[in-house]
Amino acid sequence: MRLDQFLAAQGLPYSRAQIQRRISAGEVLLNGAPAKPSARVREGDQVRFTPPEPVPATLEPEAIPLAILYEDAHLIAIDKPAGMVVHPAAGHARGTLVHALLHHCRDLAGIGGELRPGIVHRLDKDTSGVLVVAKDEPTLVSLQALFKAHRLERRYLALVAPAPAPPAGEWRTLYGRDPRDRKKFSSRVRSGKPALTRYATLERLAGGAAALLELTLLTGRTHQIRVHCRDHGCPVLGDSAYGRPPRDPRARQVARVLGRPALHARWLALEHPATGARLELSAPPPADFAAALASLREAR
After folding, report:
1. Between the chain's N and C termini, which has fewer beta carbons within 10 Å?
2. Where are the alpha helices (DSSP H) in the chain?
3. Out of 4, 79, 124, 126, which one is annotated catalytic?
4. Same-domain pairing of 71 and 184
């Protein structure tokens, strides 16, 4: 078989793409000589794989306070605040969660040959709540497999306007790029990946002009909750990208004061990759979300 296939079948804590990069970097010798990922391995061949020691991350650690929900030698769970970007990107070269984790975590074992945290999933900049990060490559690979197989539970809280009808159910759709705006996503597409969101109304607010929902992600598409709420007539309050100003003036005022999508990752449950124990992680809604909810409760 191919050299990259052979190594991928050995139970190493690396994806096949990572193995291909390591072979191309000369870290794998076939019969004492560097080889290509496509080189054929036959009975009697000797394969030697020597990963290099992780190098320091190129990003500068920053002493940014973190709300830590759980931490051990393998992973760390954070209650991410709204307004914090998870990973450096254009326009966000500093002040991200990764910068904060580089300062906090002194026991990183290396991801992709670099001493950095392994981002498994992301929350939008303006979404708060539970987020899990790997500290080493085996944990990262295991968590990625859990997310890909949907072998975990994720629940969100959202304020929407108006209240959905019916008050509970499932949204099962295709999902893909919005044909009218390629920077956004849509569930009103002719072809795409499946997306499934389960929702339940916890409270009707302002006489039905708004509602507090609990939403369970059964797939993990980008912006899935925001898109599904928009496409089913109950956009997330304060969502300027996928929503619209509420018709009800009370809800419109609350959205204006909040200034961000009213979406919070409340609960995450998964099997610990190293111990097999069930981890249940939860975070209460932040102060601005709670204040928005209180205002809508008063708007009778």
Report:
1. C
2. 3-8, 16-24, 97-104, 137-148, 224-231, 249-258, 287-298
3. 124
4. no
